[in-house]
């Protein structure tokens, strides 16, 4: 089908915005006249022009717009955000037909862009490759419909199912390989925030930065109820924006903020509400067992990525158990198997 072919191109274009558009969604647009693509564009970076604007700008002969169709993976926006409404631009340029992948879940748009175009007498088709277009912006959809970040739980485990040796100090066992580290750092670069529990922060002293892949560092988050992290911890070094959840407030410094939680009630909803308020659209949780299990037990997660090594540990900290396995796939990278669980909450 022609419509699907052009929508597939929109999705392909949109993916170029990965890592740069959050908290906006990835969006791609294609302009077709006489069965020829005359313009293409995608949303490059949050705060900059939307996909439709870039596609319209790329058209060499603007007089063709009056008899063209614009394909766009997401409903054109109808509101004034950091940029003006795309629906208005499409109307102004007199583009007669608009083919849309899926509706925008953002409450300021949510159908109003489609309505605006229809009110202006344009032919609007909605839902071409809808499933794929929604998949493309799953993090954005989760954030706007569930009012919490999209949550990826990640751990590495041994062939016999341990995530670490029992220890009070000393180094963690290395289950990752240079190749799997690259894949994990790629996932970090795609996240807005990354989080660890107190024990992991203390014992591993992780930097939680993106080093083995290209891309921005996510906001670092750690739990430290009693301010037990030493000042020499990597997480407190001020190199990357970092939030530390504690029981008692303490003044922060550049790139370091302490946020008090009420430990008399469940802290998970409080943490997620804070991240939502701060527009952090996705969160990767990298351990340890207690924190991972608190997400699993409360059913609050969207993806689980397990890096299963071929090494055996014979004893140690047992890997968390997943209670509700919705969809599952496996991928092999030399000796390591990546297990991937996906839950569709939206
Ligand atoms: C589109 N095309 O390429 C994108 C859209 O603050 P702004 O102006 O950048 O608006 C952000 C909102 O616009 C975002 O929350 C989402 O609803 C929509 N994103 N819309 O027509 C695009 N990125
Ligand atoms: Zn727009």
Please describe the topology of this protein.
Elements lengths: L1 H13 L13 E6 L2 E7 L8 H7 L11 E6 L11 H7 L4 E6 L9 H8 L3 E4 L3 H7 L1 H9 L3 E8 L4 E3 L13 H12 L3 E4 L1 H7 L14 E5 L18 E5 L9 E5 L6 H11 L4 E4 L3 H9 L5 E6 L8 E2 L8 E7 L2 E7 L4
Parallel strand pairs: 3-4, 4-5, 6-12, 6-13, 8-9, 8-12, 9-10, 10-11
Antiparallel strand pairs: 1-2, 1-3, 7-14, 13-16, 15-16
The structure holds ligand AOF and zinc ion.
User: For the terminal residues, how far apart are their CA atoms?
Assistant: 28 Å
Q: Give a short account of the largest sheet.
A: 9 strands, mixed
Report strand %. Answer: 15-25%
The count of DSSP E runs of length 2 or more, i.e. the number of strands, is 16
Low-confidence stretches: none
Structural class designation:
alpha/beta
- List all distinct small molecules, including ions and cofactors, that are bound in this structure: ligand AOF, zinc ion
Tell me the radius of gyration: 23 Å
Shape: elongated
Order of helices and strands: HEEHEHEHEHHEEHEHEEEHEHEEEE
In spatial order, strands of the major sheet run 11-10-9-8-12-6-13-16-15
Average pLDDT level: 95
Helix fraction, binned, reads: 25-40%
- Give me the number of helical elements: 10
Pathway: Cofactor biosynthesis; riboflavin biosynthesis; 5-amino-6-(D-ribitylamino)uracil from GTP: step 2/4; Cofactor biosynthesis; riboflavin biosynthesis; 5-amino-6-(D-ribitylamino)uracil from GTP: step 3/4
GO molecular function: 5-amino-6-(5-phosphoribosylamino)uracil reductase activity; diaminohydroxyphosphoribosylaminopyrimidine deaminase activity; zinc ion binding
Catalytic activity: 2,5-diamino-6-hydroxy-4-(5-phosphoribosylamino)-pyrimidine + H2O + H(+) = 5-amino-6-(5-phospho-D-ribosylamino)uracil + NH4(+); 5-amino-6-(5-phospho-D-ribitylamino)uracil + NADP(+) = 5-amino-6-(5-phospho-D-ribosylamino)uracil + NADPH + H(+)
Binding site for Zn(2+): 50, 77, 86
């Amino acid at each position: 089908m022609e419509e699907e072919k052009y929508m597939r191109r929109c999705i392909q274009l949109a993916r170029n915005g990965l890592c740069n558009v959050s908290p906006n969604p990835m969006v791609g647009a294609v302009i077709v006249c006489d069965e020829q693509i005359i313009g293409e564009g995608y949303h490059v970076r949050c705060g900059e022009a939307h996909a439709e604007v870039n596609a319209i700008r790329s058209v060499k002969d603007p007089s063709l717009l009056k008899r063209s169709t614009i394909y766009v993976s997401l409903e054109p926006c109808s509101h004034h955000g950091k940029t003006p409404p795309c629906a208005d631009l499409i109307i102004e340029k007199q583009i007669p037909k608009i083919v849309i992948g899926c509706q925008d879940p953002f409450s300021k748009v949510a159908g109003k862009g489609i309505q605006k175009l229809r009110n202006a007498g344009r032919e609007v088709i909605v839902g071409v490759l809808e499933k794929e277009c929604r998949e493309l912006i799953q993090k954005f959809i989760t954030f706007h419909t569930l009012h919490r970040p999209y949550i990826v739980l990640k751990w590495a485990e041994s062939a016999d199912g341990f995530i670490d040796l029992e220890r009070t100090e000393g180094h963690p066992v290395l289950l990752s390989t240079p190749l799997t580290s690259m894949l994990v750092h790629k996932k970090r670069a795609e996240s807005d925030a990354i989080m660890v529990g107190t024990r992991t922060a203390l014992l591993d002293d992780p930097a939680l930065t993106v080093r083995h892949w290209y891309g921005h560092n996510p906001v670092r988050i750690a739990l430290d109820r009693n301010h037990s992290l030493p000042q020499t911890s990597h997480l407190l070094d001020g190199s990357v924006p970092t939030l530390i959840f504690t029981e008692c407030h303490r003044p922060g410094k550049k790139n370091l903020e302490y946020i008090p939680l009420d430990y008399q009630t469940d802290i998970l909803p409080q943490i997620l509400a804070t991240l939502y308020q701060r527009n952090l659209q996705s969160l990767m949780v990298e351990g340890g067992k207690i924190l991972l299990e608190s997400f699993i037990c409360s059913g609050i997660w969207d993806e689980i990525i397990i890096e299963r090594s071929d090494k055996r540990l014979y004893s140690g900290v047992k890997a968390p158990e997943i209670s509700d396995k919705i969809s599952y796939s496996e991928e092999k990278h030399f000796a390591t198997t990546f297990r991937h669980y996906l839950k569709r909450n939206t």
